[in-house]
Design brief:
Blueprint lengths: L4 H8 L3 H8 L7 H13 L6 H6 L6 E6 L7 H14 L3 E6 L4 H13 L4 E4 L7 H8 L4 E4 L7 E5 L1 H14 L5 E5 L6 H16 L6 E4 L5 H12 L7 E4 L2 H13 L9 E5 L13 E4 L2 H17 L9 E4 L2 E3 L8
Parallel strand pairs: 1-2, 1-3, 3-4, 4-5, 5-11, 6-7, 6-8, 8-9, 9-10
Antiparallel strand pairs: 10-12
Amino acid sequence: MPVTIKGIARQLHLNPSTVSRALSGNPQVSEDTREKVIKAARRLNYHPNYWAQNLVGAVSNLIGCLTLDLSNPFYIPMVRAVEDVAEQKKYMVFLCESRRQIEVEKAILERFRRIRIAGLIITPVHGNTDHLYCLENDGVPVVIAGRNLAGFDSINIDNIQSGFLAGQYLIQNGHRKIGYIYSGDPANIPEQQRLQGLIQALHEVSLETKTTYKSLTNNVTGGERAAEMWFNDFDRPTAVFCYNDLLAMGFIQQVIKMGARVPQDVSVIGHDDIMFADTFFVPITTIVFPKYELGQLAMTLLIERINQLGKKHDPQTIALKPSIIVRNSCIGI
């Protein structure tokens, strides 16, 4: 049977509340008592029951982390950073995915609320924030990762600069007919911002976006769908910028299946520098930003908000700067 706080208290002839305070680092407990309690806990192989702590109203050590899609390698370094910081600060992370469905997101947040999480890191499905405000009104700080939402702390990338960098690079390499591949989801603000940045780069040299291919999904299947649109376009772009690397991978493999060449017939730029982008059979030129740092900043800011609970603060918006990694999927013309 697992050792409990009451069991340690019986061994040391102490009140259970004293043992609980000693283990949580409460300064009201003397150093001698704290040392005795910690030694006994180690000797008896005691492990704290976070669920019980939450039920009795103690400070929660549970952090909710809700991403859009765990099948996307983009989230791996971000989540790893969240867990690294959480481990250092003695928090436990509950990781879930919304699968880009608002009702799933709401249901998961309700579960998080019931287990009394201390804070939430979330990449929300879209700008419907009522359920997020309800969580904050319950005393649960919320940090947005990979998006910007008014009224919330946000850690994001400068998506307009991403599109600008991609367009600038292609223009410098002689391309004048440049396309953009994205899902077309009106709730996906980052993909709209990247298109905005691409258009800005083209306008600087009096060019227009050649065409946009709405792939419906931002995954490999969407990239394959966009490749078929490109192949059937009688006036094809010589280069395309893809919203993410999964789209770029699907686009490249389908273009090659249909008999065209990358980069000789079409240059391709992706975004995110996900795992295997550099070892793909056509290594992908891509826009990169510090994904680990994004998760690190999100978790650090969340802990700061937890420690400041009840104090007013102005929401922070942090935008990380992108850069470009040049590989084999682009060529000058």
